[in-house]
Predict the 3D structure of the following.
Amino acid sequence: MSQWIGWLRRLGDEPAAMVSVMATEGSAPRGAGTRMLVMAQGEQGTIGGGQLEFRAIDQARAMLEHPPGTWRVQDYPLGPLLGQCCGGRVRLLIERLDPEALDWLHDAEPGRMLATTFETAGVARAVFERETVTRQSARGERPEAGFRMVEPVGERPRPIYLFGAGHVGQAIARHATGLPLQLAWFDTRPEMADIDGVTVTPEETVADCLADAPEDAAIVILTHDHPLDYHLTLAALSRDPVAFVGLIGSATKLARFRSRLTADGIDEAGLARLTAPIGIPGVHGKEPDVIAIGVLAQLLQLRGQ
């Protein structure tokens, strides 16, 4: 994720150091690309907690006493040295951030590539449309001036087309904060326009919103109206396949929908693309927050697919 980009954009003039996980080996609390910001008072983010994070924060605070641009690479075995049972190794970059060297943030968007070059006077970064990712090792010689690594700016958030702004829809939107998901949220009722993030769309045209859904999108249908649910489900299964089409409902509703979908020309392959009811199997409860967490966990299972 690219949450750390937002931290840097909001940093201002406050002195800060950044801790970056460059590489891991074996079992480690967090993976390469994980970052946290450390200020004189407080931190943002985490590299996994425990003694590793405690030591990293201590080093980062000491780095605040050095000139902007100062950097250091540190290796940590996670066994006897730190008393952590992970048993792996972690290589960290700890740098005193230079506010004058953050122009690259203007171009830093998910899907682009970030090149980091270690220079004597500091860490230089640049954003490119296309670059080859370089894999780092947590062993061997530590990087010195002239070393260059390339990584994605951040994970592209999965587009979620959420239809319905009732109690469950609001719970999904509330719990989606901080997840690698990007909501496009629709409802047909004018009174829902007061809910932040909801786009009120007339019932006769709301299905047209699906035309823009990319192939990696997830479509989640849970409106206040069964005929509208069906209209959206038929539209979702009639277009080019997307990553996920999910529908809320009882067994009776789902059986009725499947029969109608077949009559309306959706074949077995199309029906197989419908996930209903939505949510992780085995998570029981009809409370909106329980349903929402089950749905979001199901959407997170799509990562890597």
In short: The domain at 158-300 is CATH 3.40.50.720 (Rossmann fold). The CA atoms of residues 10 and 164 lie 33 Å apart. The helical segments are 3-9, 50-63, 167-175, 226-238, 251-263, 268-272, 288-300. The chain is about 25% helix and 25% strand.
